[in-house]
């Protein structure tokens, strides 16, 4: 074996070129395999249609091509097999983009998200599905739900909670009357930037952002721009769009928004909490099979009597099932009554979880399973 001093730059570059050629060949080999997978899936679907009447073909096509649990398993396996020097998450991100590009060869997917372009929700959609997905901006969370319910988009991505500001009530409320299922989750580290148009840093008269972004950077704004007007808008992407068009307006938004609207960062990392993270949910029309590392979310309306909540939660304690979230919202059907949003580890098809859900259903007014889905792999 040659010592380090015997290795020259030219030979290293030749090695890199050779390895790149191998990677290129393998990528196309994987892509061709993905195309064959699409052919097999289509053939099996057409054969099944001969025996089933009244099949919703658009829903079936969606089930054929995208398997959230399969992708989660691949990413977990990639991280477990990684030996470095690349970090586990770095390798997983690379494989996410490979799977995204290959899936687009099988069936291009459209994913609705809370827009406009440049929002953290769009960044979450790209993180989960990869850059090959067709992302479709919507103006409201309800519009994202409607777009998926109607079949105009295969999936949707909506924010559900922030580590410093808590739950997103509009998302929870939308689930109560929707038939959609939770198909996945995304955790996104939120890095807030103060963005301005090129040359506009000297005359800032107001700062626009979503109300949560304003709250998450309140201390920084108090210290650096105490006398500047703060304006809450529908999203940070909308704030960036406004800042690009209106002189004197700065925006609090993401790197993605800065790229989209041609803005420069006057300051970066202005969030008050360094671990500021937002969690998003992927919504679709189908149930997701178990991946081995899953969560389940339900919404429950309990009887209005003493001990109702204790009895609701007792089966989880008895079975040693970890609760990861519990939240309440007004039921909107009766004054001073509430529904509980409960999230816990496990899949609804697991025998132990199925028994808990059956127990809860028998003692509540309503128990709705919002979905079982893989834990965030990235």
UniProtKB/TrEMBL annotation:
Residues 110-285 form the Prephenate dehydratase domain. Residues 297-374 form the ACT domain. Keywords: Amino-acid biosynthesis, Aromatic amino acid biosynthesis, Cytoplasm, Isomerase, Lyase, Multifunctional enzyme, Phenylalanine biosynthesis. One of its GO terms (molecular function) is prephenate dehydratase activity. InterPro entries: ACT-like_dom_sf, ACT_dom, Chor_mutase/pphenate_deHydtase, Chorismate_II_sf, CM_dom_sf, CM_II_prokaryot, G/b/e-P-prot_chorismate_mutase, Preph_deHydtase. Gene3D superfamilies: 3.30.70.260, Chorismate mutase, Periplasmic binding protein-like II. Coiled coil: none annotated. This is Bifunctional chorismate mutase/prephenate dehydratase. It comes from Spongiibacter thalassae.
